[in-house]
């Protein structure tokens, strides 16, 4: 059962030093938190010198506190003309401060206040899990802060990170022993890259011995603020190999990727790679972006919750939060996506489901800014939604036009993108090294080639991302039947029909179906069907009738207005949008590096007890597919996940969530049952 986060309180002691009554300890030395950060953590890890000349550098911290170590590191990176291109800072915090608490504690930071203000403005809600905050820097480079809210012992095994340096900054070992446990030390060792360094203010003997036991070469050096000694260490294990080494910073022969598919998935991947300095060739068979499943002009987004905080709920929450941050960043860069944050009211189908919703709220203890209960009376009074019962109110939910998101992402990617619209991809193939004469060709690894039906080459690059929904199945080197097509039809109500219905909600209402607020022209949209993909993609009157029945169930008082009741509308006169969703057997997406099924089958017996990380992968081939009805929710998160895997960066989600969407999961299941993946989708 997930536990609600308990926030820290912005309390200071008599010296003005932030103090935790929960642990009976201060957050930093009375000689100054910034000075301590620079001496202990930056100095103890040999920074900034160690990040110079690198494309990427990763720091992992235990105990974010008020963020002074992060702010001091960010300042040092910003002021270093030889800084690394991308600084990743991953920090675990069990008791985060609120945004207001940080503002109080940061008020006296002086020259650091501008950076602290940026941190405060980006600060996430008090929700468990990972929160990725990106801070771009002109003329290039960026700092990415990944906050992991929760218990260190639980989170460290679920971080997919390769660390170059560690900051150990929990409360005193005598006050908070859980932060200095053997499990924590093992977790740090698992994340350590070769030659990773570590620093902490304590010189306690059991801490030094614990670090030595997991492979660190430990020594004492002069401490800070009256402490005679502190501990520094270098990862130098006696063992030569590890079964699952942490990810290393990638080194590609050329930073060029081909992305197939220019809908929500493909445009998001394109923007994320371009933001990292990649050149992208974007290929789509249509005449422009967002011309197929992502073409409709209004789609809703809200999170999913369950009392046990299931995989779907956690993936949904992570996706929603990441999408909203990504869209705000696009808007700040001058590319507004037109997000309508009107809120979403989710109704249970009956009183029993409503009771389950309320029980989930009570169990999770999430902040009301994320989700709360809204009564039927409040829904009617505040939003004009005459619903039959109360429901979950997602105040950050809303709706948007997917083509506008795609346009904003491609505009932000700018000249890094070469668009090849109107190109039908017939096949993909591996070719030796870079073709002769290819621009910037280096290295000896095979590249991916994208071919048209006549055999002509559309594009060639070391990295290929399939973001073309169900069409990806025919391009994969091995048969892949996991992808399924589901037909969906939306119904558009003309302005006169909406006027006749009476008061229309100004928020999204969802349950067994959904409705959107009125568009600028006065029309409204309701939906949606979820049927097998059969026949041509044209609107069917009987499906319009089903959507009207869904509308009547969401707003039953409309049926009392006989002149304009949904049942009085003629479905044959209505229009709407028809599209195809792509789903997998368990309705979770496929995000990440694709497996090499042929090689896996050659070693099927040895892999029957394997884990996902043991499976062979196709070099440079990735997928961002099968979002089903949650394209808005998952596209931005999927793009960041794929880009992070390509670059060998810390992943933006916990490893168990990355495993849940791994394209190799079906192959693993097949191997464990002695079958081919192609035959396992229905097994």
CATH superfamily of one domain: Vaccinia Virus protein VP39
Order of strands in the sheet with most strands:
6-7-5-4-8-9-11-10
Based on helices, strands and strand pairing, what is the structural class? Answer: alpha/beta
Share of helix, binned:
25-40%
List keywords for this structure.
7-stranded mixed beta sheet; 8-stranded mixed beta sheet; FAD/NAD(P)-binding domain; alpha/beta; single chain; 18 helices; 683 residues
Condensed summary:
This protein has 683 residues and is an alpha/beta fold. Among the domains are: 225 residues, 3-Layer(aba) Sandwich (Rossmann fold); 191 residues, 3-Layer(bba) Sandwich (FAD/NAD(P)-binding domain), CATH 3.50.50. Helix content is 28%, strand content 24%.
Question: Explain this structure to me?
Answer:
Helix 3 (99-106) packs antiparallel against helix 4, helix 8 runs parallel beside helix 12 (402-413) and helix 8 packs parallel to helix 16. Among the domains are: 11-235, Vaccinia Virus protein VP39 (Rossmann fold, 3-Layer(aba) Sandwich); 256-292 and 403-481 and 590-597 and 606-672, FAD/NAD(P)-binding domain, CATH 3.50.50. It is an alpha/beta fold. The chain contains 18 helices and 32 strands. It is globular, with a radius of gyration of 26 Å. One of its GO terms (biological process) is tRNA wobble uridine modification. Its EC number is 2.1.1.61, 1.5.-.-. Residues 260-683 are annotated as: FAD-dependent cmnm(5)s(2)U34 oxidoreductase.
């Amino acid at each position: 059962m997930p536990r609600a986060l308990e926030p820290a309180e912005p309390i200071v002691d008599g010296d003005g030093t932030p103090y935790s009554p929960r642990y009976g300890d201060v957050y930093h030395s009375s000689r100054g938190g910034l000075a301590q950060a620079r001496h202990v953590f930056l100095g103890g890890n040999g920074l900034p010198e160690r990040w110079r000349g690198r494309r990427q550098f990763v720091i992992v911290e235990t105990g974010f506190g008020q963020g002074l170590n992060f702010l001091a590191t960010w300042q040092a990176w910003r002021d270093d003309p030889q800084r690394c291109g991308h600084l990743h800072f991953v920090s675990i915090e069990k008791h985060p401060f609120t945004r207001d608490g940080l503002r109080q504690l940061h008020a006296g930071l002086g020259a650091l206040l501008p950076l602290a203000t940026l941190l405060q403005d980006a600060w996430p809600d008090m929700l468990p899990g990972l929160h990725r905050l990106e801070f771009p820097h002109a003329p290039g480079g960026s700092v990415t802060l990944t906050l992991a809210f929760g218990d260190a012992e639980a989170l460290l095994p679920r971080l997919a990170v390769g660390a170059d340096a560690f900051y150990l900054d929990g409360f005193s070992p005598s006050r908070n022993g859980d932060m200095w446990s053997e499990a924590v030390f093992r977790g740090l060792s698992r994340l350590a890259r070769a030659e990773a360094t570590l620093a902490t203010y304590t010189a306690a003997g059991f801490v030094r011995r614990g670090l030595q036991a997991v492979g660190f070469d430990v020594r004492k050096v002069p401490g800070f603020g009256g402490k005679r000694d502190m501990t520094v260490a270098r990862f130098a294990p006696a063992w030569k190999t590890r079964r699952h080494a942490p990810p290393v910073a990638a080194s590609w022969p050329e930073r060029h990727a081909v992305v197939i598919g220019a809908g929500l998935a493909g445009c998001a991947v394109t923007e994320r790679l371009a933001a990292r300095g990649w050149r992208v060739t974007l290929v789509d068979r249509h005449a422009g972006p967002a011309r197929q499943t992502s073409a409709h002009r209004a789609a809703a987004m809200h999170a999913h919750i369950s009392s046990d905080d299931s995989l779907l709920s956690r993936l949904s929450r992570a996706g929603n939060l990441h999408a909203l941050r990504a869209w705000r960043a696009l808007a700040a860069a001058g590319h507004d996506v037109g997000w309508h944050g009107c809120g979403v009211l989710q109704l249970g189908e009956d009183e029993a489901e409503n009771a389950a919703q309320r029980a989930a709220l009570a169990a999770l203890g999430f902040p009301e800014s994320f989700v709360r209960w809204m009564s039927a009376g409040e829904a009617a009074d505040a939003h004009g939604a005459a619903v039959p019962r109360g429901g979950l109110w997602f105040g950050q939910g809303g709706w948007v036009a997917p083509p506008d998101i795609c346009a904003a992402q491609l505009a932000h990617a700018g000249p890094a993108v070469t668009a090849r619209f109107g190109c039908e991809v017939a096949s993909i193939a591996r070719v030796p090294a870079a073709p002769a004469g290819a621009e910037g060709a280096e290295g000896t690894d095979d590249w991916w080639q994208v071919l048209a039906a006549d055999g002509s080459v559309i594009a060639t690059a070391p990295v290929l991302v399939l973001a073309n929904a169900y069409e990806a199945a025919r391009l994969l080197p091995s048969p892949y039947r996991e992808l399924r097509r589901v037909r969906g039809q939306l119904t558009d109500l003309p302005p006169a029909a909406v006027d006749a219905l009476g008061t229309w909600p100004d928020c999204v209402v969802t349950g067994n179906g959904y409705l959107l607020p009125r568009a600028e022209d006065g029309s409204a949209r309701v939906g949606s069907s979820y049927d097998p993909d059969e026949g041509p993609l044209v609107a069917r009157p009987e499906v319009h009738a089903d959507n009207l029945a869904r509308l009547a169930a969401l707003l039953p008082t409309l049926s009392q207005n006989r002149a304009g009741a949904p049942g009085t509308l003629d479905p044959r006169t209505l229009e709407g949008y028809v599209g195809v969703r792509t789903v997998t057997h368990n309705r979770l997406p496929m995000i990440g590096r694709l497996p090499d099924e042929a090689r896996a089958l050659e070693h099927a017996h040895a892999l029957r007890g394997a884990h996902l990380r043991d499976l062979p992968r196709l070099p440079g081939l990735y997928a961002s597919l099968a979002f089903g009805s949650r394209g808005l929710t998952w596209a931005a998160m999927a793009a960041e996940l794929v880009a992070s895997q390509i670059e060998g960066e810390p992943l933006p989600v916990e490893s168990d969530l990355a495993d849940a969407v791994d394209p190799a999961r079906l192959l693993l299941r097949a191997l464990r049952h002695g079958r081919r993946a192609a035959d396992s989708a229905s097994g």
